[in-house]
Each structure stands twice: as C-alpha cells, then as structure tokens.
C-alpha cells in the first residue's frame, strides 16, 4: 500500500512538474561540489595581507585581446608598484586544448590568473565568481573592497578606489547598477528560469553583473558563510546554474542582510552616466556590449575615461593612483608631493 502510494506520488509529481529545464538539469544532481584550482595568482599580482582592494575580472579563455587591453589600459595601475590594489583574471577551461595551453602560458607569464578546473559555459559563471570569492576568503584577509567586473567593461580604477574609501569600513554594502527583476519564464530567453528551479515571482533586489563593488571589512567571509549555511549552493547543481549577479548580489546578499546601493556611475551599453561626488561627475564603469548600437568598443569607452583622466592631470599612471597605500609604502609619492598634502588628500577622498 505504502509502495503504491509512493509510486503514485512520484508519478503525479512527475507529470505536474513537467517543465522544460532550459539550461538547467531536469532532475537535481547532488554529487559533492568541487572546484579545483589549476593556478593561483602569485602573491605579487594577487592578494597578500596588505591588499585593500581586489578586482576580479571574468574572462573567457578566448579573450586574449580583452585581457591585454585591460593590463595595458584601465587595469595598468594595479600592476604598478602599488601594493594595495590588485587585479586578477578568472578563467576556466575552454573546449580547445590548444587554447587552454596558451592560457596556462599566459597565467605563468603574468601571474595574474586564477585558473579554475571546470569547463566554461554561460550557465556556469556563478561557480567562477564563487572561485573568486573563495580565493578572497582564503588569501585576502585585509581587503575592504572587492570589485567584480566583466572583461568587456571599462572601469575607472581610481574612481572605484575613491568610492571604496568613502564607503563605511564596517557596514557591509554592495554597490552597482540597481535592478529589481523577475525571473523570465520565456523559454527563448537567455535568462529563462523554470519554476521548479525558482518558483518565486521576483528575485531579491540585485545589481547588474557587469561590475559591482562589495565593500566593508569581512564582507566576503560573510557571504561565504551564508552560502554554506543558508543556501543549497554546495548541494544543488541547479542552484549553482543561476546567474552570478542574481545569486550573489540578489539571493546570497539578501540572506546575509547586506544592503544594496545604487550608483549611476555604473552603466551599461557604453552610455556614460555619472556618480556625482564632491561636485564632480565620475564615470565608474562602462559596459560595452549590451543594448549598444554605436561606438560599442572597449576602446571607445576607454577614451571617455581617459579624456577625463587628462582633465584631472593624471597624464601618466603614477603612484597618485595608489592612494589607498600608506605613506610608508609610497616613497615616490611622498617625495614629489610632500607628506602633509598627501595626508590631507587621503582624508578627503
Ligand atoms: C604579512 O605577511 C608577511 C609575509 O607573509 C608577514 O611577514 C607579515 O608579518 C604579515 N603582516 C601582518 C600585519 O600580518
Ligand atoms: C572562508 O574562510 C573561513 C575561515 O577561514 C572558512 O572557515 C570557510 O570554510 C571559508 N569558506 C569557503 C567557502 O572557502
Ligand atoms: C575617474 O575617477 C577619478 C577619481 O575619482 C576622477 O577624478 C575621474 O574624473 C574619473 N574619470 C571619469 C572619466 O569619470
Ligand atoms: C551602519 O549601519 C548602522 C545600522 O544600520 C547605522 O545606524 C549606521 O549609521 C551605519 N553607519 C554608516 C557609517 O553608514
Ligand atoms: C591640472 O593642471 C593645470 C595646470 O597645472 C591646472 O591649472 C588645473 O587646475 C589642474 N586640474 C586639476 C583638476 O587639478
């Protein structure tokens, strides 16, 4: 009798939950989750205990040009002799062995790649961001700010450092382009989400994934703890297939009771918008692909950011941009400007 009941229940459940899984799995898959690391960024390029700000850029193995563009342009200050802001790239395996070999060479050459051992696809990006946060949780004990960016986003690193400085040290927040959205139930959509994966009508408030800033000491350990204790991330493959911004800036952030801050300085579609700060308009991040009909290149976005750099007398990269450093660590800065000015500037940032 009990058996018949179970069979019937399963059958009914089976019929009723017949829903196209899209890019999700039709049935839950509960194998233990593991995400081995193939290569960790070296201490010099990655975090050490003096790192205050770490930037992690999502990049597909094929995007060699994007990565070099970032290394040579907006990301360059993080490669200077500046030890408190760092930039690393986050990658997995492609399905092309030759390309993977090149990526390993690149990782050895630049020492700025966190290489994770999984096969990349659009629905698996959340695990890459998890790999980043796990790295920060383990290796960046003193970071105040963690920025996640996409490879096609141009970021004003100086502006982000300034934003980081004015955010409270101990109140945790996530700042970005605010979006409050519903799961899409249209199978054709890139963001199709079946009801059996997420039955609720709306996502928690979230910010768009092209670039967002986590701020406050201890924010990543807090998110990691929530992930372990309050979500099914480690047991549900379908949960891990949710989009990274929804998962981390929406669901996990909400469960961690961390507020969101909308900042118009983050913008997509290569349309500049500004963060107004102390009477100045500041572009923080420009995404260059979505909804963009003209001038959609990262070069174009970089020109916008650069033009303003000139106005601000940052003609070349300099230790000006390392202002999160203590004076002791920036001898050049002190020598050229004078320590009192440096100190008062640092306070006003
Ligand atoms: C930071 O790390 C270095 C090298 O690992 C160590 O010598 C130093 O004591 C550490 N500093 C602090 C403040 O933990
Ligand atoms: C984060 O760090 C804490 C403290 O070291 C550790 O207990 C925890 O397992 C880490 N979480 C992850 C996901 O690595
Ligand atoms: C980038 O940020 C710096 C520092 O806040 C600011 O002076 C500069 O104007 C910003 N650049 C743009 C293009 O907004
Ligand atoms: C930090 O959060 C507390 C509680 O929400 C609030 O009272 C306080 O004003 C916040 N501090 C800052 C610097 O934002
Ligand atoms: C940049 O330098 C010029 C010439 O020294 C100066 O007149 C101008 O005020 C400076 N601009 C800023 C934003 O500091």
From TrEMBL:
* Chain ranges passing through the membrane: none
Q: What is the lineage of its organism?
A: Eukaryota, Metazoa, Ecdysozoa, Nematoda, Chromadorea
Q: What is this protein called?
A: Hexosyltransferase
* Nucleus in keyword set: no
Pfam families associated with the record: Galactosyl_T
The alphabetized UniProt keywords are: Glycosyltransferase, Golgi apparatus, Membrane, Signal, Signal-anchor, Transferase, Transmembrane, Transmembrane helix
Subcellular location(s): the record lists:
Golgi apparatus membrane
Topological relation to the membrane, as annotated: Single-pass type II membrane protein
EC number(s) on file: 2.4.1.-
Q: Would the keyword Repressor be found if you checked this record's keyword annotation?
A: no
Give the record's family classification. Belongs to the glycosyltransferase 31 family.
Q: Where is the signal peptide?
A: 1-17
Output one GO MF annotation: hexosyltransferase activity
Q: Native species of this protein?
A: Acrobeloides nanus
Main location per the UniProt record: Golgi
């Amino acid at each position: 009798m009990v058996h018949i009941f179970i069979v019937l229940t399963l059958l009914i459940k089976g019929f009723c939950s017949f829903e196209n899984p899209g890019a999700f799995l039709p049935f839950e898959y509960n194998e233990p989750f593991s995400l081995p690391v193939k290569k960790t960024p070296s201490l010099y390029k990655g975090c050490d205990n003096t790192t205050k700000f770490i930037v992690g850029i999502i990049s597909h193995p094929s995007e060699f040009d994007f990565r070099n563009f970032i290394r040579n342009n907006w990301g360059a200050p993080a490669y200077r002799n500046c030890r408190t802001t760092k930039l690393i790239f986050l990658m997995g395996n492609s399905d092309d062995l030759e390309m993977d070999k090149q990526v390993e060479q690149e990782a050895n050459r630049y020492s700025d790649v966190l290489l994770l051992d999984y096969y990349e696809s659009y629905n698996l990006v959340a695990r890459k961001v998890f790999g980043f946060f796990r790295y920060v949780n383990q290796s960046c004990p003193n970071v105040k700010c963690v920025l996640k960016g996409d490879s096609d986003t141009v970021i004003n690193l100086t502006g982000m450092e300034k934003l980081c400085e004015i955010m409270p040290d101990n109140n945790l927040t996530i700042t970005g382009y605010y979006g409050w959205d519903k799961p899409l139930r249209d199978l054709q959509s890139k963001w199709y989400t079946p009801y059996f994966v997420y039955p609720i009508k709306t996502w928690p408030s979230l910010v768009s994934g092209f670039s967002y800033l986590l701020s406050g000491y201890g924010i990543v350990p807090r998110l990691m703890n929530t992930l372990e204790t309050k979500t099914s991330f480690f047991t549900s493959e379908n949960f891990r297939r949710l989009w990274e911004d929804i998962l981390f800036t929406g669901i996990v952030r909400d469960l961690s009771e961390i507020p969101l801050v909308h900042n118009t300085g983050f913008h997509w579609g290569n349309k500049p918008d500004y963060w107004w700060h102390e009477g100045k308009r500041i572009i923080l991040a420009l995404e260059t692909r979505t909804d963009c009909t003209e001038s959609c290149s990262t070069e174009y976005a970089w020109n916008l950011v650069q033009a303003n750099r000139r106005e601000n007398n940052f003609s070349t990269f300099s230790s000006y941009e390392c202002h999160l450093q203590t004076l002791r660590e920036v001898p050049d800065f002190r020598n050229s400007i004078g320590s009192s000015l440096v100190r008062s500037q640092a306070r006003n940032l």
